[in-house]
């Protein structure tokens, strides 16, 4: 039996790392009159589907995928939510 | 009285728009052996704090900020969550 999960992955800069893009956005917003906006931090939001035998395997795969491909562990953190979308039985 | 809100903003490509970065990531993952991953879509995740008189004003400001600065409404959708983090009284 294989289950398909929707993964919602958040990759964010570690709090100690400078975010020049965030600073640029905040500066732009101030020039547009939004001087009530602060602490702008820009990260990535990734959605994908992953098909595995169970949720534990899906989480293991996703942690490796995040470490190796989607984030730079030196400067970024990640977290993800898993949502079951489909269960299939039979031969694959 | 002024309230500070933490906004968590998700900017995603509209479903009808091709995502070349997502295709590249999926192709890379397949070469790494993850052929159980599909439908990779890459978006932006932005956190910021906004200080306003009330939540309605915060939502109005954020919608303008998303439309004018954080997203390209032609090809992207956005949504955001607001979390109240601090209420301040007195003169500003």
Largest interface: A-B, 32 and 32 residues
Report the mean per-residue pLDDT of chain A as an integer. Answer: 94
| CATH H-level superfamily title of chain A | Phosphoribosylformylglycinamidine synthase subunit PurS
**Overall number of domains of chain A:** 1
- Can you give the helix content of chain A as a percent range? 25-40%
Q: How far is the first residue's CA from the last residue's CA of chain A?
A: 9 Å
Strand fraction of chain A: 35-45%
What is the radius of gyration of chain A computed over CA atoms, rounded to a whole number of angstroms?
Answer: 18 Å
Assembly state of the chains shown: homodimer
Describe this protein with a few key phrases.
elongated; homodimer; three-stranded antiparallel beta sheet; alpha+beta; 3 strands; 92 residues
Written overview of the protein:
2 copies of one chain form a homodimer. Chain A is α+β, with helices and mostly antiparallel strands. In chain A, 30% of the residues lie in helices and 45% in strands. Chain A has a 3-stranded antiparallel beta sheet with strand order 2-1-3. Chain A is elongated, with a radius of gyration of 18 Å. Chain A starts with a strand and ends with a strand. In chain A, 26% of the residues are buried. Chains A and B meet through strand 1, helix 1, strand 2 and helix 2 of A and strand 1, helix 1, strand 2 and helix 2 of B. Strand 2 of chain A pairs antiparallel with strand 2 (37-52) of chain B, so a sheet runs across the interface.
């Amino acid at each position: 039996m294989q289950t398909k999960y929707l993964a919602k992955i958040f990759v964010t800069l570690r709090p100690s790392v400078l975010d020049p893009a965030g600073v640029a956005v905040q500066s732009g917003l101030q020039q547009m009159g939004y001087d009530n906006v602060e602490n702008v931090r820009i990260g990535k939001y990734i959605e994908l589907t992953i098909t595995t035998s169970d949720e534990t395997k899906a989480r293991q795969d996703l942690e490796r995928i995040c470490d190796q491909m989607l984030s730079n562990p030196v400067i970024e953190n990640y977290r993800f939510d898993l949502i079951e979308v489909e269960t299939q039985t039979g031969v694959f």
